[in-house]
Design goal:
Length: about 800
């Protein structure tokens, strides 16, 4: 009963544990666990050999392996390993041959995947298969037969077949052994891991008469423990044939050959002799097997004569030395072969022109760049050698650039050698010339294009050094009267010119304030109407300024001459009216003779030149037979004696007219009264007194006038000479179209408005608005004289 109770309780605990495991498995039914273990086993283990306990190594419950369906899942059809579900042991299910499974791979691994369920777990197992020395070395064949001619010189090598061992590492072939023989020895060449090639070397000459064949055994031994080996039986058959080999007369032939030689050129001729007779003594030549393919492309060897000729292009720059291996073989049954070297040294020919490479270039340089500024770095190379490869470099002439050598050979820098001026030359095409020192010399050229960028280094320049403006008075305000222009040889904004009038301080600049200028085109406008009678000339300055930074400017002086217009009518100076009357009264005795000077009309015109030349005419007179008026002097004289029938009063209306294009005039009315002799005395006294007083005044004025005229005459002559040099001729021709021999020089003040001379007749005239001088005034030793105009010419108004 107690045992049953204990069994019952144990069963309950077991059921509870199974219930917990079931629920835990339900919660983790989709959970996959990954782990990996690794075993190493030697190959060739017996079937059933235990590799290891996977369950213990993975921490699995051994008792639940069957229930959880512990198993191996492998993609291989052949199950080399298997697991025991009862205890978790991994065992060998089939004998494993590493060489069959992995051949000669250095690492051989079998990857297994184990699976348990409830919960699902996947584990990876790697089994490394270790190599054991289970294979012996073996040769491709068991017997090897070699035929060697007698008297083959010692040192001859004969390659044998290598043995093969499927094992790897220390278990593979480690050495070869040759059973002792007096004529042969073994030489092994190692060509890498597990690749050893045996050579049979003749160390003593063979003699068929002593032994017709030799039996040798070659043994291959691996490095396993215990060692294993394989053998090859070698039979050496001694042939009684060609026992003398060809001999070259030189071991090394050295030849010098120029590059670029024509095809077919003979390089050299090798010569080998054989002491044998017949076919055994006939020698043929061939290139050695170790010769490079390039030699086959460049050279040809005559098999019978040993003559080497050129069949390809020889280029020193590609290669300067060729070493050709030439073999000489006889025609014996077993040919004997010797070799020699033909060293062909290629001599350079100047066949490569220098190559110019621009490594760095500044295509644009400012014109204010300092001398020595680097423009470009230039590398020059020549593939030739010696003098053929020595290069010197120059630049084209007439450019402000030069080359400077650098610290490295054939490396140059192109620098400026003088100041640049874009306005003179804006772009340079610099030709670089590279020339070697070969004979004949070769050269190459390359052109560099360099543009000069502008800087503001030029001031605007006016088209003239000074300007003269002739402006007619009474001009309309706001009208364009003149234009100046300036140019700037710079570029872009540095060449954009603007204009303005310089207005300084002082009276001399007061008139320029009435002028304005268009800042863009230089057109000058008059803001007011000028009056010749107020101002005759002035000057101002125009400034032209560019838009560069900093800005540059220049100025020019404009001399303005105001030209007279006939805008002033003559003004009557005498005879003057009295008592506010509009008429002047003159008294004349009745007993005067013919030609008596009654009075003289004096007038003034503020204009100058022809506009101030006055003429007098009678517009109205009571008796044309009694009084006459001189057209040019304004003198009124009697033409006859008075008679009894003549009236006592006579009215004369006199017209004073200037000589302008549009003539202006004024009139003077004179009443002439005749008186008897007694009245004449009174009148005469009065007139004499008045005349005396007036004469005294006139004399005083005349002295002042003559002094002033003399001074002004000298000034006028100097001005005349100066204006002949600077005044445009077309203006003079236009001003005096009636007589081209007249010229005018404007004067100052009221005493003199113009000086005129006639060059052909050497006659001069001083003309003034308030005076007329009829007498001749000497000018000097040249015989010229200052005179009044001749009869028939226009005369100005006068003051007596």
């Amino acid at each position: 009963m107690g045992l049953f109770t204990m069994g019952y309780r144990g069963q309950r605990r077991k059921n509870a544990l199974q219930w917990m495991i079931t629920h835990l498995a339900f919660l983790l039914c989709f959970l996959k666990t990954y782990a990996q273990i690794r075993y190493s086993i030697p190959e060739e283990l017996k079937q059933g050999s235990i590799v290891g306990n996977i369950a213990q190594n993975l921490g699995l419950d051994v008792n639940a392996l069957v229930e959880r369906r512990f198993r191996i899942v492998s993609g291989s059809k052949e199950q080399l390993l298997q697991v025991n579900q009862n205890n978790g042991d991994l065992y060998v299910n089939k004998i494993i041959d590493r060489e069959e499974l992995c051949e000669r791979n250095s690492v051989c691994v079998i990857n297994l995947k184990t699976v348990v369920e409830n919960p699902l777990e996947i584990h990876y197992v790697a089994i490394e298969i270790l190599d054991i020395n289970d294979n012996s070395p073996s040769f491709p064949e068991n017997e090897k037969r070699l035929e060697i001619a007698e008297l083959t010189l010692p040192g001859a090598r004969f390659q044998l077949d290598s043995a093969h061992d499927p094992d790897i590492g220390v278990n593979s072939i480690r050495l070869y052994k040759l059973h002792q023989d007096n004529h042969f020895e073994l030489e092994v060449r190692d060509r890498g891991e597990d690749n050893k090639i045996p050579f049979l070397v003749l160390k003593k000459a063979l003699d068929r008469e002593l032994s017709t064949e030799h039996k040798l055994v070659l043994t291959a031994i691996d490095g396993g423990n215990p060692q294993k080996s394989g053998s090859l039986n070698i039979t050496i058959v001694v042939l009684d044939v060609n026992d003398n080999r060809p001999i070259f007369n030189q071991d090394i032939y050295t030849v010098a050959l120029f590059e670029n030689v024509p095809f077919g050129t003979v390089v050299t001729k090798v010569n080998a002799t054989d002491l044998d007779e017949g076919p055994n003594g006939e020698v043929v030549y061939s290139f050695g097997n170790n010769i490079k393919s390039k030699v086959y492309e460049l050279f040809n060897l005559d098999a019978n004569t040993g003559e080497i000729t050129v069949k390809g292009g020889i280029d020193f720059e590609e290669r300067d030395v060729y070493e050709i291996n030439v073999q000489a073989s006889d025609k014996g049954q077993v040919p004997m072969t010797v070799d020699c070297s033909v060293v062909v040294k290629i001599k350079d020919v100047n066949d490569n022109a220098p190559d110019i490479e621009i490594t760095s270039l500044s295509g644009v340089i400012a014109e204010d760049a300092s001398v020595g500024t680097v423009i470009a770095l230039i590398s020059v190379t020549d593939l030739d050698s010696g003098d053929n490869g020595q290069v010197f470099c120059t630049v084209s002439e007439s450019v402000p650039f030069q080359l400077k050598s650098s610290f490295q050979d054939n490396l140059f820098s192109l620098v400026t050698k003088s100041r640049l001026d874009r306005e003179t030359t804006s772009q340079y095409n610099i030709t670089l010339i590279a020339q070697d020192r070969g004979q004949p010399s070769l050269s190459s050229e390359k052109t560099i294009h360099v543009s000069i960028s502008d800087v503001n280094d030029n001031r605007p320049v006016f088209s003239q050094s000074s300007y003269t403006l002739y402006l007619t008075e009474n001009n309309p305000p706001g009208m364009a009267v003149f234009s100046v222009s300036a140019s700037d040889p710079d570029q872009n904004e540095n060449a954009v010119v603007s204009y303005y009038i310089f207005k300084g301080e002082g009276k001399e600049n007061s008139e320029s304030s009435y002028l304005s200028i268009n800042s863009e085109n230089g057109n000058i406008y008059a803001l007011k109407s000028f009056d010749f009678e107020n101002i005759k000339n002035f000057q101002f300055q125009v400034v032209a300024k560019d838009s560069g930074v900093p800005s540059l400017s220049s100025n020019v002086t404009v001399e303005v001459y105001i030209l007279d217009q006939n805008d002033n009518a003559p003004v009557i100076l005498s005879p003057l009216s009295r008592n506010g009357s509009a008429e002047a009264v003159e008294q004349v005795p009745r007993n005067v003779n013919s030609g008596y000077l009654v009075t003289k009309v004096r007038a003034y015109d503020a204009d100058i030149g022809y506009n101030a030349w006055l003429s007098f005419s009678l517009q109205q007179v009571t008796d044309f037979s009694l009084f006459g008026l001189d057209r040019f002097t304004g003198q009124i004289k009697t033409l006859r004696l008075f008679t009894e029938t003549d009236e006592t009063e006579h009215k004369l209306i006199i017209v004073v007219k200037d000589n302008g294009n549009v003539s202006l005039s004024t009139t003077a009315t004179i009443l002439i009264t005749t008186v008897e002799k007694t009245e004449t005395i009174a009148v005469s006294d009065i007139k004499t007194s008045a005349t005396s007083q007036e004469g005294n005044n006139v004399t005083f004025y005349l002295i002042i006038t003559l002094g002033s005229v003399s001074f002004l005459f000298v000034i006028s002559i100097i001005t005349l000479i100066a204006m002949q040099c600077c005044r445009p001729q077309d203006y003079l021709n236009k001003k005096y179209t009636r007589d081209p021999n007249y010229a005018e020089v404007s004067g100052n003040g009221t005493l003199c408005h113009s000086i005129q001379y006639r060059a052909g007749e050497k006659r001069y005239m001083l003309v003034g608005p308030r005076m007329s001088i009829g007498s001749t005034i000497g000018l000097g030793s040249n015989g010229n004289s200052l005179i009044a105009p001749e009869r028939g010419a226009h005369a100005p108004g006068e003051v007596s």
